[in-house]
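User: Show me an example of a complex going from sequences to structure tokens.

Assistant: Sure. Here are the input components:
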Amino acid sequence: MTILIQLYMSFFWVGIFCVGGGYASVPLIQHQVIGIHQWLTMSEFMDVFAISQMTPGPIGINAATFVGTRVAGLPGSIAATIGFVTPSVIIMLILGYIIKKYGDVGAVRGILNGLRPAVVALIGGAAILFICMSLFGVDKIAINLAQTKYLNIIVMIVSYVIIHKKLMGVIGTLAFSGVLSLILNTVVTHI
Amino acid sequence: MESKTEFSQWKLFKSTFLISAFTVGGGYVIIPLLKAKIVDEYGWLDEKEALNYVSIAQTAPGVVAVNAAVILGYRLAGFLGMLTAMVATVLPPLITITIIAYFYDAMINNQYIKYALDGMQCGATVLIIDVAINLLRKQIKKKLVLPILIMLVTFIGNYFLHINVMYLIIMDALIGLLALQDPKYN
């Protein structure tokens, strides 16, 4: 039981102090999991993040779940994950209430008017970052023509037509592109 | 905005669960996809309001994807909506990673799994591009100098100067507080 409480508390702290998305949580989780508790070795920890990036879902949650499972099985993964999201839920409930109630008050409205363009910028940046990742396999905004994944270009063009012509919804497009890539890659490697 | 699809907790759960289950790459991917689903496909929220809530989700501590799902769920259906969205976001990684943690070598080295994940990343990329282009076009069409400047500076600051998103967002909030209270910026 104590180990579950420790997992919950550790990830609760990570949840409070990680600001700015998935990668911001890496050093915080490292500190808790290796520095304070010695739950994982450094090389296991590196694997956690490789896996978290490859698998669907938010990276921070993936990492919490993986660490929890390794340390204390399924109950551990649940304790770590709930710990991680508790601060989010509390803070979002408070802020959500404030916007719902005071969203039209001058000051709050001003702040929101300043934040919306920022979100557009972040989404635009994520789009460019993802193009670089899907085309060249690099995890920053950079061009590496030698590593170009040509099959991914085909998958992206076909998926773009699908989403642009509204032939499928969001989830359909994601599933379709996974299947298309599986077929294309399997066919190409067997020729 | 007219709601195209009637709201239900089950639809909120299903769409959030599937987006979380199929999205490789974390918060910045899930947010545009949630927006595409909730605003463009279902019409449950208008775009401006969705961006308001999402911007708050990105400023606050915690997992951005969970923040976004939680605050949108809260807006759509109060406390219960929040719980629905939270469980739906957390459940898929909880299931996949728990399984992977047990069979990790076999799964990570399976090339077919890799192909499918690679393809899903391409699909997510294309969806984000689509959302980004639409948002950008609307923002530019308004021809308001200051919001466009905020957009440019935030983009350069985050992706080229690698300034922490939190500082950029606080700066943008301050600019908004001081200069963007006029209703024409709504």
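The lines above are the inputs; the final block is the predicted structure for all two components together. The CA atoms of residues 24 and 59 of chain B lie 22 Å apart.
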